């Protein structure tokens, strides 16, 4: 019995040490940030809340079914061969004055608006996980570019602190070549622990705006959740983002279930020239936090998007559908509703406002 008690104590102490001292799990908010968090109308009873009730609880029956499906897996969960990747040309990206968007897979995007270079939800690691070689593995062996190959970045925008959107190794590599990190309330604590200077971070609540190098960048609502470790769920905010210049408006929805916030955003900031809309990693059991593809097209209409680029697919398997199901369903729904949709390859350049844009079915 004595040995058992000692073993349990060692396990508990070990777990506490990992939770508090393992860097990829992130950090805690400063006193100043914590004061802003507590003052937020979106922070209730110690946690950030969605605008509308969003339950993530599953019944025992549904939980057992999901576990069975996860153990079995989907035969087309990952590509059977290498997917096409266009190499990134830093010189061309920098010298071309046009507004551009380059998708790096999943929700990582390199955007240039009015000559301002913005990196969104940068994840350059091979795994969307806090532990190397565990968790969801990237489909492709290579990316269009590594962090070291990118030009100096003016701003990094983060939607929320989940591992497939905020990556420890990537931030560590980026911290010296980024002017500003623009993030939801509470996320600064992670970045500071990873070596980003506090003065280089801007934290925003929903509907807050910052004017940056001639752009208006606004944090807007999403319907999701947050947390990188046990006991810290809901202590950081999740956001969608609006980028506005004199010539273009871009909307990035982050991760979100469908909800009334899309029409609110459209009424306040729309119409948008381009929307970057989540279309993958969904399931009926968690549709409140990840839209179904048909809802994605409706959400695009709600925010008054003129043209939609589907994202949050093509890199990691985080749900039970096939890897191509998101793009197949979202393109079908878009065509049925007459929604303009662009489907660039990973690394392919999309020019904002151009008459022609990528539409190939490269995943087939």
UniProtKB/TrEMBL annotation:
<feature type="transmembrane region" description="Helical">
    <location>
        <begin position="6"/>
        <end position="22"/>
    </location>
</feature>
<dbReference type="InterPro" id="IPR024884">
    <property type="entry name" value="NAPE-PLD"/>
</dbReference>
<keyword id="KW-0472">Membrane</keyword>
<protein>
    <submittedName>
        <fullName>Membrane protein</fullName>
    </submittedName>
</protein>
<dbReference type="Pfam" id="PF12706">
    <property type="entry name" value="Lactamase_B_2"/>
</dbReference>
<keyword id="KW-0812">Transmembrane</keyword>
<feature type="domain" description="Metallo-beta-lactamase">
    <location>
        <begin position="118"/>
        <end position="313"/>
    </location>
</feature>
<dbReference type="InterPro" id="IPR036866">
    <property type="entry name" value="RibonucZ/Hydroxyglut_hydro"/>
</dbReference>
<dbReference type="InterPro" id="IPR001279">
    <property type="entry name" value="Metallo-B-lactamas"/>
</dbReference>
<keyword id="KW-1133">Transmembrane helix</keyword>
<comment type="function">
    <text>Counteracts the endogenous Pycsar antiviral defense system. Phosphodiesterase that enables metal-dependent hydrolysis of host cyclic nucleotide Pycsar defense signals such as cCMP and cUMP.</text>
</comment>
<dbReference type="GO" id="GO:0005737">
    <property type="term" value="C:cytoplasm"/>
</dbReference>
<dbReference type="GO" id="GO:0008270">
    <property type="term" value="F:zinc ion binding"/>
</dbReference>
<dbReference type="GO" id="GO:0070290">
    <property type="term" value="F:N-acylphosphatidylethanolamine-specific phospholipase D activity"/>
</dbReference>
């Amino acid at each position: 019995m004595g040995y058992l008690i000692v073993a349990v104590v060692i396990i508990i102490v070990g777990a506490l040490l990992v939770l508090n001292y393992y860097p990829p799990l992130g950090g805690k908010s400063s006193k100043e940030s914590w004061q802003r968090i507590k003052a937020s109308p979106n922070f209730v009873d110690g946690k950030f809340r969605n605008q509308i009730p969003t339950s993530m609880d599953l019944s025992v029956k549904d939980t057992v079914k999901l576990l069975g499906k996860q153990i079995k897996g989907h035969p087309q969960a990952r590509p059977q061969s290498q997917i096409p990747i266009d190499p990134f040309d830093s010189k061309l990206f920098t010298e071309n004055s046009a507004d551009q968007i380059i998708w790096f897979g999943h929700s990582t995007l390199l955007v240039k608006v009015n000559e301002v270079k913005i990196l969104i939800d940068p994840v350059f690691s091979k795994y969307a996980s806090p532990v190397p070689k565990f968790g969801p593995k990237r489909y492709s062996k290579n990316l269009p570019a590594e962090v070291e190959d990118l030009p100096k970045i003016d701003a990094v925008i983060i939607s929320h602190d989940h591992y497939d959107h905020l990556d420890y190794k990537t931030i560590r590599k980026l911290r010296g070549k980024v002017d500003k990190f623009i993030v939801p309330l509470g996320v600064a604590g992670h970045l500071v622990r990873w070596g980003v200077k506090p003065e280089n971070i801007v934290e925003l609540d929903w509907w807050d705006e910052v004017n940056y190098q001639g752009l208006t960048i606004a944090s807007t609502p999403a319907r999701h959740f947050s947390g990188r470790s046990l006991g810290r769920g809901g202590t950081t905010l999740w956001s969608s983002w609006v980028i506005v210049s004199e010539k273009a408006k871009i909307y990035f929805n982050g991760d979100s279930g469908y909800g009334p916030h899309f029409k609110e955003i459209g009424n306040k900031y729309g119409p948008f020239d381009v929307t970057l809309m989540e279309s993958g990693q969904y399931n009926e059991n968690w549709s409140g936090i990840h839209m179904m593809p048909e809802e994605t097209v409706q959400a695009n209409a709600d925010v008054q998007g003129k043209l939609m680029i589907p994202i949050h697919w093509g890199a990691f398997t985080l749900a039970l559908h096939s890897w191509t199901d998101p793009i197949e369903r979202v393109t079908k729904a878009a065509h049925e509703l007459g929604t303009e949709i662009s489907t660039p390859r990973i690394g392919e350049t999309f020019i904002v406002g151009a008459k022609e844009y990528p539409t190939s079915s490269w995943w087939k």
